[in-house]
## 1
Amino acid sequence: MDFAVSTPDGRLEDRRKAPTPTRDLNAFLATLTDLCAPYPGVPLHIAIAGICDTQTGFVRAANIPCIGNTPLAHEIGARSGRTVLVANDADCFALAESQFGAGRGHNNVFGVILGTGVGGGLVINQKMVSGLGGLAGEWGHGPFVVGPGGQTEGIPAFACGCGQTGCIDTIGGARGLERLHHWSTGKTADSHVILDAWQNGAPDVARTMDIFLHYLSSALAMTVNITGSSIIPVGGGLSSVPRLIAALDQAVRGHILAQTDRPLVVPALFTRDAGLIGASCLSEA
């Protein structure tokens, strides 16, 4: 786990790392308590790659099974004697970009993660939005590519880890792009190879990318129309491909109701520390 102390202007100090106990809850709590021990009484804010239910306080994280169905903030607070806030890392990413990054100066910011999969977080008026079950900004889920009666009209509808079929997450992100390319061409290739081939004009990749950009931009356009977001910072591994972000931006702006000539989908400013910075911006309100 990564630890840092945040200054009011978003800088990180006293950076430290510690191995993350994933199977032993007591060891996990002890590690966090030890990391923040030099700062008695200072609030502890945590970003995790999981679901944080704001109504119950319980969290679930696939990569840290020992904290599953645990009121994590309460447990750490009782042990360390400090205020503890916990939030999803994609939400913290959006908050970091809103406060100090590409979304600074915008009221409504929708932060997008295009990494292994698809994620997102919503910030309105500098406040992170957390909805039913602690979920908000999950634009990658919902049966976008499945028609009535489960018909797909030639477009792939893959099973999703959320239990549904045809989610954007199944064809977005790095693994989704690879899955989509195999369906389209019968060829197996790494996402970096696919994107390099696309940028070099390889014809067999063009259809893959046409489908990829069409469905991602359609889902993002719907999100913009609903949330009124005026900027969409993109993080994750795929955000490092400028042509991809530019193509996605152009496609999204072609689908939304509020037309604009200014870039809407842009690379995020924070590529590594967004979780830490965003967590530091969390508030109890």
## 2
Amino acid sequence: MRTLLAALTAATLTAVAGPAAAQTAAPRPAQRIEVVGQGSVDRMPDRVAVTFAIITNDDTASKATTDNNIVFNALLAKMQALGLNTGAIRTTNYMINYNARPAQPNPQFPQRYGYIVTRNVTVTSDSTERAGAIVDGGVAAGVTNVAGVVFTIRDARGAYRAAQTAAVADAQAQAEGLAAAAHLHVVRLASISAGASTSVPRPVFFSNAVALRAAPPPPVPTDVEASSLTVNATVTAVYEVAP
């Protein structure tokens, strides 16, 4: 009888002590801090894209398209004279619309009537110094609008990677600063994710080229200078910290 009571007492003590021991042995959850790092780099652009619009209209569709083709062919000739091949000259949009002439057109709102042919052409060069010459060539060819000049970076991914490196360094510095302020230290990087890349282009816009042709020719060629571009990157990082 005494042996049975001793066995039951030992089993009871084991059942009570077991969960407490297990609870004591469980590891404490790691403390974590999350930061958003930001980085940026400046790069000089090494590519320029000039966008032109050629708009023609006539009561006859064939005449409207023919006039548009004449200007486009003249633009091709001007660009080829600058040393640009046909691969650098791309038609990005082409459409034909019909706009009926009203019985009494409003002179305050001049519009095109009949068949309206619109062609958008982008000329790209890896020499940013050619921007002004491309603009002048397009105006001389008879384009309707110079829609814009945009400078870009050919190795955009390389610039973004450099910005990411700066963003990671910023995240590390933030984590160490926060940990030190809380009397902790960074143990390790638990996770990291990249945000979207952004860049700050330097577009240059021009007004209607017809008005430029109506005025006397400029005494000097068009000069469009490139300026540095800023590429931005962000990362979200989670760090484990401890006392």
